[in-house]
Design goal:
Layout lengths: L10 E5 L2 H4 L42 H4 L3 H15 L3 E5 L2 H4 L10 H16 L3 E7 L5 H7 L6 H16 L6 E5 L9 H5 L9 H26 L4 E7 L3 E3 L4 H23 L6 H7 L10 H4 L6 E5 L4 E3 L33 H15 L3 E5 L17 H19 L4 E7 L19 E3 L11 E3 L1 H11 L6
Parallel strand pairs: 1-2, 1-10, 2-3, 3-4, 4-5, 5-7, 6-8, 7-9, 9-10
Antiparallel strand pairs: 11-12
This protein binds 6-O-phosphono-beta-D-glucopyranose.
Length: 475
């Protein structure tokens, strides 16, 4: 039997994000954000809002983010539950438009700051370290309308102003920060990921990679600002992770997987190494991208992150001949169906060993501490007649993934912690549904926004509580 033990200071956690949980979308001075513009029933991955998204909301439509699970008013109750669960770290994000309602103001909204201070103090009351993402798929609508979001470099200044306010105002309360959630998702879901809409006939790649350049400069300058505020701060990047398997050993499939891996890790290569990778020149040429890089940008990129965080839900599978293969429809990242893997109710491949593979590959490539900040199963849950929720499928999924994670740690991978997505049910990022549930705590709310919002612990709550207590020995 293995003698391997998870280190005592390992950060077991649970996560939510502001736009999927808080609601209170116009309260106490908050401005509208990109996600607030997306009504129920539209795939978040495929928003076609035209040239300028329409900020006039449709009175007859239902917008899931407007109330979400109302964490804004339930945060004390919810954090008490997370304290009971025994979390060492609670991951959330700050809603940028709660601090800067339009995005380009000089001064922040003090009521927004007060809210997050209360949240972080409450976390500390239960001994939970907050891990905070500055930008989790949200951007103030004012920045989209006025500047076209990240396609305009003026947004870098707005972001840095916002980031500096966060580091200053939450100093002493928050030690762990992330700049952008799943920064590579801008390639696949540009509007919901980064507020980017396209004009007719535009070269999408040109817009996306120029925006990505601005985001990478902004991320690096935020790292600099964080360390200037407090050298003890640990700030990381965040990747939508999952290795790209070749569909077969046909060298063409293998080459396709190498290319997709580079495309995916492009952002992390910059954030960790501090410069554009060697393959970028040819990649841009093939995608007909010509980056506008201004004086000082390349120097700014040298401020590299302290650790690499990532989400892991599934591995991906690619082929040189994608068109003639069965697509894996559920995946946000285009992928073909892997015949070796089962899928979730939403068609996401289930591949625990893929987590070990991903961790080994990331660590081999970067030799920096890793942090799993999202892993979990989106599933429908039923309340039994006795009021319990027997989510054994979720326990089984997590058990297998934690097992694979431990194997990777034993392989020598340095891992700071493991965070489950999500610790409480919330609105799905890709579909806007409530019925795609991930939590240890059930929230009574349906896809149309009906329900009492009452919270109820699932079977997995008690299971994860034991896992944390035994530091991963009990699975
Ligand atoms: C990640 C996001 O992509 O996956 C989360 O960071 C998201 O915001 C999670 O909720 C699961 O995806 P979904 O679409 O099932 O909510």
């Amino acid at each position: 039997m293995s003698k391997f033990r998870i280190p005592e200071d390992f950060l077991w956690g649970g996560a939510i994000s502001a736009n999927q949980a808080e609601g209170a979308y116009r309260e106490n001075g908050r401005g509208i954000s990109n996600i607030d513009l997306i009504p129920h029933g539209i795939s978040r991955m495929d928003v076609k809002l035209g040239k300028v998204p329409n900020p006039v909301l449709d009175k007859n439509a239902y917008y899931p983010s407007h109330e979400a699970i109302d964490f804004y008013h339930h945060y004390k109750e919810d954090l008490a539950l997370m304290g009971e669960l025994g979390l060492k770290v609670f991951r959330t994000s700050i809603s940028w438009s709660r601090l800067f309602p339009r995005g380009d103001e000089e001064q922040p909204n003090l009521e927004g700051i007060a809210f997050y201070r209360n949240v972080f103090k409450e976390c500390r009351k239960y001994g939970m370290e907050p891990l905070v993402t500055l930008c989790h798929f949200d951007i103030p609508e004012g920045l989209i309308r006025t500047y076209g979001s990240w396609r305009n470099r003026k947004v870098i200044d707005c972001f840095i102003r916002y980031a500096k306010v966060c580091f200053r105002e939450f100093s002493g309360l928050v030690k762990y920060w992330l700049t952008f959630n799943e920064i590579n998702i801008v390639l696949h879901s540009p509007f919901s990921g980064a507020g980017i809409a396209f004009e007719e006939g535009e070269n999408r790649n040109q817009v996306i990679y120029q925006a990505a350049h601005h985001m990478l400069v902004a991320s690096a300058l935020a790292v600099k600002a964080a360390h200037e505020q407090d050298p003890e701060i640990k700030i990381g990047c965040m990747l939508a992770g999952g290795s790209f398997y070749p569909y077969s050993c046909n060298p063409k499939d293998v080459w396709e997987s190498v290319k997709k891996e580079q495309e995916n890790l492009f952002f992390i290569d910059v954030q960790v190494r501090g410069h554009y990778p060697s393959y970028a020149g040819r990649m841009f040429e093939e995608k007909k991208v010509s980056l506008k890089i201004e004086d000082g940008d390349l120097e700014a990129l040298r401020y590299t992150v302290d650790f690499i965080s990532f989400s892991y839900y599934a591995s991906r599978c690619v082929s040189a001949d994608m068109e003639n293969k069965t697509a894996n429809d559920g995946n946000v990242v285009r992928s073909v169906k892997n015949p070796w893997l089962q899928t979730s109710q939403w068609g996401w491949a289930i591949d625990p060993l893929g987590l070990r593979t991903t961790m080994n590959q990331l660590y081999d490539r970067y030799q920096k501490p890793l942090f799993i900040v999202e892993n979990g199963l989106g599933s429908k849950d039923e309340i039994a007649e006795d009021g319990t929720i027997q989510d054994d499928y979720r326990i089984d999924y997590l058990k297998q993934h934690i097992g694979a994670m431990k194997e990777a740690m034993e392989d020598g991978v340095e891992l700071m912690g493991y965070i489950v997505w999500s610790c409480i049910d919330l609105v799905s990022a890709s579909t806007g549904e409530m019925s795609k549930r991930y939590g240890f705590v059930y929230v009574d709310r349906d896809d149309e926004g009906k329900g009492s919002l009452q919270r109820r612990k699932k079977k997995s709550f008690y299971w994860y509580q034991k896992v944390i207590k035994d530091n991963g020995e009990y699975l």
